[in-house]
Design goal:
This protein is α+β, with helices and mostly antiparallel strands. It is 34% helix and 18% strand. Helix 1 packs across helix 4.
């Protein structure tokens, strides 16, 4: 059992149960999944061989970061203003659940966020009305698995922590208890 699971079972659940009056552990909010998105965006190259190399480099780094192979996201329709054709790769996505989700969340809180330059905390407005937290990371170098010597392509990512509750207040309290560093006003 991971340290996050033990913390949830022994500390977080009893406190949430007391604060919100939950009857059992299944009624209590908990992290459901973590979705990591990387958009290829302006890096899309018209030459297919260069585009494939770019996607391969980003995919390898994302697999190192998450411990899981990313899924290539393709455009649903052509948009001439962005030089995007239907079924052209436009991004990568990884969905983490269970043990990998807990490991990634632990790494995010304890290793990644403290390494971000001038990090003051996450604004509470990053939690949406459904209780999901979205964090933007500007470059992959803040992850301990990535060496700056080996990086050819820099990319940012969007990390979304999805909770089981659709109540913002309950989910926000859960995220605070897990250890997400929110800004204090």
């Amino acid at each position: 059992m991971s340290s996050l699971q033990e913390k949830y079972k022994n500390k977080i659940f009893p406190e949430l149960k007391k604060k919100f009056g939950f009857k059992n552990i299944l009624d209590c909010p908990r992290p459901d999944k973590i979705v990591v998105n990387v958009g290829i965006g302006q890096r899309v190259v018209k030459d297919p061989s260069k585009r494939d190399d770019l996607i391969k480099k980003i995919s390898n780094d994302l697999a190192l970061i998450t411990g899981q192979k990313p899924h290539i996201r393709k455009a649903r329709k052509s948009i001439s203003g962005f030089s995007v054709r239907e079924k052209m790769p436009v991004g990568l996505r990884v969905t983490l659940r269970g043990k990998r989700m807990n490991q990634f969340l632990d790494k995010l809180i304890n290793a990644v966020l403290p390494r971000i330059r001038d990090f003051q905390g996450i604004n509470e407005s990053s939690v949406d009305g459904e209780g999901n937290l979205t964090i933007g990371i500007k470059e992959q170098l803040v992850f301990p698995e990535i060496s700056s010597d080996d990086v050819d392509v820099f990319f940012g990512m969007e990390i979304t922590i999805v909770t089981t509750k659709t109540n913002r207040e309950e989910s926000l309290e859960l995220l605070k208890m897990i250890g997400i560093p929110f800004t204090t006003k």
